Amino acid sequence: MLLEGKRALVTGASAGIGQAIAIGMAGAGADVAFNYDRGEEGAAATIAGIEAAGRRALAVRSDVADPDAAPAFVGAAQEAFGGVDVFVSNAGICPFHGFLDMPRETLERTMRVNLHGAYYMVQAAARRMVEQGGGGSIIAVSSISALVGGEFQTHYTPTKAGVLSLMQSAAVALGRHGIRCNALLPGTIATDINKDDLADEEKRRYMEGRVPLGRLGRAEDLAGPAVFLASDMAAYVTGASLLVDGGMFVNLQ
C-alpha cells in the first residue's frame, strides 16, 4: 500500500497505459480521478477496477487539448477528494503517417494533445499542489520515441521529447515546493494506439526480436514504475527518466 491515503489523478485512463496506471495506483491505496476523451465502456471498466480495489473513483470526460479542461479536471478532483497528491499526464495520440505528406491537422492535433495538453494539465496540477502545500509527485508518460526517430512518427517523437524536457524543467521549477517531476519512457507497448501497426505479424516478430526480454510490453508493465515514482520510496528522485522497454533501447548491436 505504497500510496495509501494519497489522491491521484491520471489523464487518458479509459484504456491502455492510463487505465493500467489508474487501477494500479488504486491497488496501491490511492483514490483515483481520471480524465478521458472517449470510450465510455473503457471508462466504466476503469471505475470498476478502482472501486474493486476499495478506493474512490472519479471520471471526468474532457479533451486535454482544450486548455480549459486542465483546471476543470483538477478542480473536480479537488472537490471530490479534497486535494491532489499525485498527477500522471498520460493522454496521447499517435496517428502514424509519412513525413512528406503529413496533413497539417494531424500534426497540429498531435501537438495539441500530446505536448500542449501535457503542459496545461501539469501546470494546473502543480498550481493546486503549491496552493495546498506538502509537495507532491508529477509523472509524465513520455516514450522511447523521445530518444530515437521513427519514419512514420515525425509528428509524434517531438512531442514525446518535449514531454521529457517538460519534466526536467518542471523538476527545477517545482523542487522548492517539494514537488517531484519524473518521466516514464515506455518502449513498444501493445495498446490500441498501435494495434493496427502491430497487426503485421512480420513486423511484430521483428519488434519482439529487438527486446532482450523477448516480448512486447503490456500496459500493466507501466503500473509498478508509476506507483514507485509516486510513492515515498522515490522521495529523492526528481528530474529523472525511467525507460520501461524490456531493454529495447540498449539493444543496438
Automatic annotation (TrEMBL):
It catalyses: L-rhamnofuranose + NAD(+) = L-rhamnono-1,4-lactone + NADH + H(+); L-rhamnofuranose + NADP(+) = L-rhamnono-1,4-lactone + NADPH + H(+). It is an enzyme of class 1 (oxidoreductase). Signal peptide: none annotated. SUPFAM superfamilies: NAD(P)-binding Rossmann-fold domains. Its EC number is 1.1.1.378. Gene3D superfamilies: NAD(P)-binding Rossmann-like Domain. It comes from the Bacteria. GO terms for biological process: fatty acid biosynthetic process; rhamnose catabolic process. Pfam families: adh_short_C2 (PF13561). GO terms for molecular function: oxidoreductase activity, acting on the CH-OH group of donors, NAD or NADP as acceptor; quinone binding. Keywords: NADP, Oxidoreductase, Rhamnose metabolism. This is L-rhamnose 1-dehydrogenase (NAD(P)(+)).
